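Work Package 4 report. The design task specified in the project plan requires that, given a folded chain encoded as structure tokens, an amino acid be chosen for each position. We show below one input record used in the internal validation round.
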């Protein structure tokens, strides 16, 4: 049974709404003002809140703002009821996070329609979140153990040899084993980092306030970051000669930390899926209200069906390519771009290479 909290300082109206909703089978709780309503919402965590706008001391806007600021109540569907449904008031309510407006006076049919619509939408969102969580859980259970064990096995095996036989091994072999341990450790570090970042991104996506705050971050000199990270990735694989840079600066609406992550993942993939001696082109240029980052390689490319299935823990053609990693790099870049109000597109052709285009809002463009 769905639980609905009705907040209104007019007793007769509360009674009418409660009677109507109970006839539909809802469990209804009442509150005579905003302060009482906030406390009851915290306690019972209703499936929906119906709240009057014009109340003494704590009005509907303050009630809404208070509930939206707390993690436990932030996602509860919230309908404002008012006899003054002007555009400015409605816009203010929507900016605070209201899901709907119910202008007074309203009919019982309008009340039912508003309540049922919001509850149905909330259920749909919950179902989608649960499905995503189930898919993520399945993918993690299949991919994560193998991906973590692979570098760990190398670390443990060579570590054991060095701990027992280091004295009898030539220095060159010791150095070689140390290099394998180092590279395996770096790979393991990147896997764990990507797993943690992806989890953080998914949590951010369910919190509108944190996502909004994220979009206020800025990078004043994106060219500096793109250039530095591209050079780092090229040097790591000994392919500086393969890379060309064409970078034009303009402040972007994204934090330096997340811009760095996007560049790292996309440039890493460009080198990873192309052969040494083939070109990697990286460009950065402003246009209209966006800053565009373009990264092109001349590698194996992806099929159309692969592009449409970009998702976490999905590795394309693993048997043929023997690729390593959780397949999180591209989806992390995509989700970070979208969280900042941008877009990520892929232009690719099997055997001819891939171009990833990231459009991020310019500073002040949001």
């Amino acid at each position: 049974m769905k639980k609905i909290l009705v907040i209104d300082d007019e007793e007769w109206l509360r009674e009418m709404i409660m009677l109507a909703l109970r006839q539909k089978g809802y469990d209804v709780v009442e509150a005579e003002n905003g302060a009482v309503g906030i406390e009851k919402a915290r306690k019972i965590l209703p499936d929906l809140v119906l709240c009057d706008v014009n109340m003494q001391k704590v009005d509907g806007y303050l009630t809404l703002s208070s509930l939206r600021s707390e993690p436990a109540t932030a996602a509860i569907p919230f309908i404002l009821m008012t006899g003054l449904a002007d555009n400015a008031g409605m816009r203010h309510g929507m900016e605070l996070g209201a899901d709907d407006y119910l202008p007074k006076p309203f009919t019982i049919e309008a009340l039912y329609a508003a309540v049922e619509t919001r509850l149905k939408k909330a259920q749909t969102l919950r179902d989608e979140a649960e499905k995503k969580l189930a898919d993520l859980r399945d993918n993690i259970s299949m991919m994560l153990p193998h991906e973590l064990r692979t570098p760990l096995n190398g670390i443990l095996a060579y570590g054991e040899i060095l701990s027992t036989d280091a004295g009898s091994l030539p220095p060159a072999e010791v150095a070689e084993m140390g290099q394998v341990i180092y590279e395996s450790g770096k790979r393991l570090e990147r896997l764990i980092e990507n797993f943690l970042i992806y989890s953080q991104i998914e949590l951010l996506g369910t919190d509108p306030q944190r996502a909004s705050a994220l979009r206020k971050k800025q990078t004043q000199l994106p060219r500096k970051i793109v250039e530095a990270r591209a050079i780092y990735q090229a040097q790591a694989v000994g392919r500086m000669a393969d890379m060309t840079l064409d970078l034009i600066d303009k402040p972007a609406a994204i934090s330096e930390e997340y811009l760095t992550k996007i560049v790292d993942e996309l440039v890493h993939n460009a080198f990873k899926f192309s052969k040494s001696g083939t070109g990697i082109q990286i460009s950065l240029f402003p246009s209209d209200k966006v800053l565009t980052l373009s990264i092109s390689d001349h590698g194996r490319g992806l099929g159309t069906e692969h592009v449409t299935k970009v998702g976490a823990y999905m590795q394309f053609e693993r048997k043929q390519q023997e690729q390593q990693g959780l397949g999180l790099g591209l989806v992390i870049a995509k989700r970070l771009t979208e969280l900042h109000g941008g877009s990520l597109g892929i232009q690719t052709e099997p055997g001819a290479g891939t171009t990833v285009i990231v459009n991020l809002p310019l500073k002040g463009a949001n």
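Residues 266 and 283 are 12 Å apart (CA to CA). Validation will be extended to a larger panel in the next phase.
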